[in-house]
């Protein structure tokens, strides 16, 4: 994972709409030749989490600009439940429409088949990749009253007193990242599941939970406001945006990386021209200077990938997290 992710991030700037990138050049030609009758009705962007999370933030930045490009209404609908699987299932069921897409944490979607024993769909078979949009590392943070200021201090504190650890949902990407840290350090915190990152953040700010692992994009405003204190970020190297926050890797968990990967998926019946046109438009939008600056300032890096590249990423994430799920024995009906 570490090698592939570094390659993924390192090549992002060169690949984003570069005329030298064969995949995007072919996509540009395909997008130009796309069915000019599409879309014929409003386009729905389903966010399978509550408002206020990383995917929701990006969807609401994207929607009005996509509407301008398509000359059609674009609406964002939050359909939370079952760790994002409820919303994903609704998109799968909308296969006959061709006007509904899913904007989610692609890594979390890749985890679901390993965690859920009775998943009503197979994302690898029922959904097709459209475009990767952005990456935001996870941030490990605590309520300001928690005395620990480093990963090691937090681990030691967890052995001395009960620490409630807020997770967006059992089996979510932040949960599995926390489990991986726990396995590597011997921490003994207690997981408290939520239905989304926004409520998990709210309760940690309120002191109902003491520790949280969440996407930096949705968490940084609360860190800047002093409502949460950062312990570490889950990136291979420190971020220029928050240079004072050390990485988990440099605090003893060598090579550790995780994060939220916002991307767009569509029903498997979506045609190539439509998927490729959407991929091009979305990549162009998130690379607009004002959009890019807005997301960067909030802790997200623009990382665009075409459908083929996103499919490859999804498959590698599915294989990677299946091993963590198996070792932690995390299974849900």
Write a brief caption for the model.
InterPro entries: BUG, Bug_dom1, TAT_signal. By secondary structure, this protein is an alpha/beta fold.
Topology (elements, then pairings):
Elements: H1 2-10, H2 12-15, H3 22-32, E1 43-47, H4 54-70, E2 74-78, H5 85-93, E3 100-105, H6 106-115, H7 123-126, E4 127-142, H8 151-160, E5 164-167, H9 173-185, E6 190-193, H10 197-206, E7 211-215, H11 216-224, E8 229-233, E9 259-267, H12 272-286, H13 289-297, E10 301-305, H14 307-328
Parallel strand pairs: 1-2, 1-3, 5-6, 5-7
Antiparallel strand pairs: 3-9, 4-7, 4-8, 4-9, 4-10
Query: Mean pLDDT across all residues, rounded?
Result: 88
What's the gyration radius in Å?
A: 19 Å
Low-confidence stretches: 1-20
Helix content: 40-55%
Give the number of DSSP strands. Answer: 10
Describe the sheet with the most strands: 10 strands, mixed
Strand content: 15-25%
**Secondary-structure element series:** HHHEHEHEHHEHEHEHEHEEHHEH
Q: How does the helix and strand content classify structurally?
A: alpha/beta
Distance between the termini: 28 Å
